Amino acid sequence: MPPSDAPHLQGLDALQVYEADVTREDIIREYGVQADDIVKLSSNENPLGCSPHVTLAVALQLGALSRYPDGAGVTLRQYLGDFHGVSADCVTLANGGQDLLALLAAATLSTADGKNQNARMVYAQYALSDYQLASLNITQQAVCVPAQQYGHDLAAMAEVINATPECRLVLLANPNNPTGTLLTAEAIAKFVARVPSSVLVVIDEAYIEFTPKQTSVRLTQTFDNVVILRTFSKAYGLAGLKIGYAISSPVLAELLKLSRQAMGANVLALAAAQAALADQTFLTDYLAFNAEQRQALYKGLDSLGIEFVPSVANFVMVNVGDGQTVYQALLEQGIVVRVLSGYGLDAWIRVSVGLPEENNRFLDTLAQVLA
User: Fold this and answer.
1) What CATH number is given for 24-49+281-370 in this structure?
2) Contacts of 318-327 spanning 24+ positions with Cβ under 8 A
3) Which of 188, 198, 258, 354 has the fewest C-beta atoms under 10 angstroms from its C-beta?
4) Model's pTM, two decimal places?
5) What are the residue boundaries of the structural domains of the chain, listed by start?
6) Topology at the third CATH level for domain 52-279
7) What is the tens place of the pLDDT at every residue in 77-128?
């Protein structure tokens, strides 16, 4: 407990500390697992690393670490604009997609003099965890719409939005984490057309590289109330540099720039993101690898008679009966997965698609744990 005379930071009381993965050191110390025997399949990272062009680009920037980055990220924004077929004025850079979501939530659900308790955000069941709701400080303002086969029920969401005059923000995650389900671009376009123009539609496409034809970027050129969130952390393998961006109308982008951090991306991240985007061969090879290894995971789970939700991304949601107990048992053997109780999915875990030997180790250990 803080001392009674500590300053009261209004609005922070309901926040939660992010529960990060256990570290390798934690596992070695607590369970006596050898470092080489630890398999981390919890954060949907790229097990192949990043493009060698990224490594070179980062190395070339090491001499510039004493200098501030280009706060506007002009070069990378132009590169991203060309890549997506939009103006650079439509692109906003940030320190990861979660920063952008927090900024958008604060902007739409608050007033100039503080939090607007009447404003509402609509989202789909299994699209945000308890932690994420708390970290955005919107737990009491969020309206959850029940999922349909572990995915978004767009028809039900549209009905809720139109029946909620106080709705200011709606979030779609496509593909969705942790369920791995997908909405088609056509279905999203029809949904957006049903949403009042006063409601901001945020589409989180953190995993869209795994199914690029279903991106909704084109909607930002037609609807001023649509924002697309993207990240380099997943398919591109830059999780350690935390760089993401938003695509929107130029008007929305200008508003975002007024409220974002002045230097939302560091020198290394700017260089790495541009190099990663330029090496589409690396991305193509990784996507093929991921699809192959994801199928191998399916086959292994089927052989064990274990239920799972087919995924379009680089992770699979698996029904193990008691997620927390199985998570702990796997952890004691050096296998780190994600427990999903924060989503109300107590029976499930999420496992990232790893290297062949990592996937096999997970399947073998899971079989032993469940036996």
Assistant:
1) 3.90.1150.10
2) 318/348, 318/349, 318/350, 318/351, 319/347, 319/348, 320/347, 320/348, 320/349, 320/366, 320/370, 321/347, 321/370, 322/346, 322/347, 323/347, 323/348, 323/349, 326/366, 326/369, 326/370
3) 258
4) 0.93
5) 24-49+281-370, 52-279
6) Aspartate Aminotransferase; domain 2 (3.40.640)
7) 999 999 999 999 999 999 888 888 988 998 898 765 566 778 999 999 999 9
